[in-house]
Each structure stands twice: as structure tokens, then as C-alpha cells.
Amino acid sequence: MPAQTVYLNGQYLPVEQAQVSVMDRGFLLADGVYEVIPVYGGQPFRLTQHLQRLRNSLAGIRLDLDVSDSQWSDILNRLIADQDSTELSVYLQVTRGSAAKRDHGFPSEVSPTVFVMVNPIPPLDPKLAQQGIHAILLDDIRWQRCDIKAITLLANVLLRQQAHDLGAQEAILVRDNLALEGAASNLFVVDGSKLITPPKSRYVLPGITRDLVLELAPAAGLVATEQDIPAQSLPGYDEIWLTSSTKEIMPVTLLDDKVISKAKPGPVWQRMTQAYHDFKQTLGQDSCP
Ligand code: PDD
């Protein structure tokens, strides 16, 4: 099998040859941001929105990067063309770059490290649609700028692993008694025909899948609202979902030890998943979905 090609600082290289200095601030200080962009039928999905969020994240960490949308598009398309599969996920990372010495303050002369790789997206487990997932509630131990998609993910890593250690697939994070989002996903609850998600804030990543689900809600017969969700109210909702670019819409059927939506993915989830898949089919018909 030919080696995977990745993009690093203007070059397209076999992954084994792509090397970053140990002085890179991403390595030493986790000083950088990233994006994960799904690709369906060989086309990046919601690219404009992902690139806008990338710009917001870069501004959030005060990192200037002069790459236009069409330049990003060219990089992604070249890496996508190199793959056998057309169902992929793009991982894109920008760090502040490497400086002569390790210092917390920004170096005066430094150029960002830009890295992009594309990998096949694993097909969604069919058990998901039959059984849903198990989530647990955990205290949100992350920082106060969760709206920045920062590579500083140690808290998320520990929280996700804590969920795995308890046999669950995801942790739902709680701060000041409010359920905010998952360790790597956004949160929705269903109350009759009402779809609720926490409002955007410094404690929630503005998920691209989240925004699309809100956009599709009216066509799926749902009234969407952004409002706080007290953690203790969660088991009382008809359905609970977690959304992300790589896992799409995951129905939660067990929360801690409480059964949700009669232990199977609910009818509203089925409707919304259908709407989501229908929307994906519009790729290629619309140049910029
Ligand atoms: N994570 N919240 C957090 C904390 C996340 O890390 C993610 C996604 C989301 C969902 O955002 P989106 O719908 O834009 O994927 C919400 C990605 C997939 C990751 O870190 O791999």
C-alpha cells in the first residue's frame, strides 16, 4: 500500500517523512488549534463553516495565519484525491510554530506550523441505530475557553477515558449544575416536538453538526431552542442525542444507570437522522453545503 500523503508547511509528503521540531509550541505547550472536517463522496462537508470556526479559533489564541478558503480547499482536495475511499475525515492543525527556546510568552519571530492529514472515516457502527450509546455525567474540568477548538485536550482525553473505563462511550460534562456538551460532542434533548441544546458560550464548542441539526429541525417537524439544560433534568427528557462531525447524531439510551427513551433510539432521532442523511445527499448538487 502506498504511504499516506500528508501536508506540512507547504509540502506534500509521505507521513513517515513529515517531521516537526521538538521545539514546536504545539509539542511543548499545546499552543495551537485544530479542525476535524468530514468528507462525503469526496467532498468536504460544510467546509465554509469549518474554516470560519478555524479562523475564530486562531483569533481566539491570537495567531495570525494568512491562508484563504480557496488555498485550504486546494490542500484538502489534493489530499482527498490521494485516497482510495471517498468517505473521509480531515484533521487540520495549526500551532504557533517552533521557537529557539521554550517560553510561555509568544516568540517575536515564529511562523506557524500547518499540518493536514486525511483518513478514512470508520463507518458508523450499526449497533448505534439499534441500541444507542451509554453516556455518563462528569464534572467539566476543562478551561473557560471551550469555544476555541484548541489542541489542549488533556481534560477531554481524561474525561473520555473515564467514560470508557466505566463501559460508556461518552461523558456529558456538567458545570454549575448545567449539562453542557460531551467530551467530543454537542448535546441535544427532545421534549415532545421541542429540540433543546445549550446556548453557545465559552463553555461549549460551537459544533458544526450542532448548527446543522438546528437548521434541519423545522423540516423534521421540530421547534428548536437554545436553552440551559440542568443536569438533573436529563433523565426526564424523551430523548438525548450527542452530535459530532465524525459520529453524526448519536442517541443516548443509558445515562449513568438510568434508561433513556425506553432503551432504544427514539422516533425523533430516527426522523432527524433521516433528515441529516437526506441533507448529505445534496452534496455535489450544491457547491457549498
Ligand atoms: N470534536 N464539542 C467538543 C468538545 C468536540 O470536541 C466536538 C468535536 C464537538 C462537535 O463539533 P463538530 O460537530 O463540529 O464536530 C463538540 C472532534 C470531532 C474531535 O475532536 O475529534
Record keyword descriptors for this entry.
289 residues; 6-stranded antiparallel beta sheet; D-amino Acid Aminotransferase, Chain A, domain 2; D-amino Acid Aminotransferase, Chain A, domain 1; binds N-(5'-phosphopyridoxyl)-D-alanine; 15 strands
Task: Offer a concise description of the structure.
With 289 residues, this protein is α+β, with helices and mostly antiparallel strands. It has 2 domains: 5-120, D-amino Acid Aminotransferase, Chain A, domain 1; 128-281, D-amino Acid Aminotransferase, Chain A, domain 2.
The CATH topology annotation of the largest domain reads as D-amino Acid Aminotransferase, Chain A, domain 2
Going by CATH, the homologous superfamily of the largest domain would be D-amino Acid Aminotransferase, subunit A, domain 2
- Per DSSP, what share of the residues sits in E-state strands of 2 or more residues? 25-35%
Tally the helices: 7
Distance between the termini: 33 Å
What count of structural domains?
2
Tell me the number of strands. 15
CATH architecture of the largest domain: Alpha-Beta Barrel
Helical content band: 25-40%
Major beta sheet summary: 6 strands, antiparallel
What is the highest CATH level, the class of the largest domain? Alpha Beta
Instruction: Choose one word for the global shape.
Output: globular
Query: Secondary-structure element sequence?
Result: EEHEEHHEEHEHEEEEHEEEEH
Q: What is bound: which ligands?
A: N-(5'-phosphopyridoxyl)-D-alanine
Query: What would you call the structural class?
Result: alpha+beta
Strand order in the sheet with the most strands: 2-1-6-5-3-4
The overall pLDDT average reads: 95
> What is the radius of gyration computed over CA atoms, rounded to a whole number of angstroms?
20 Å
| Low-confidence segments | none
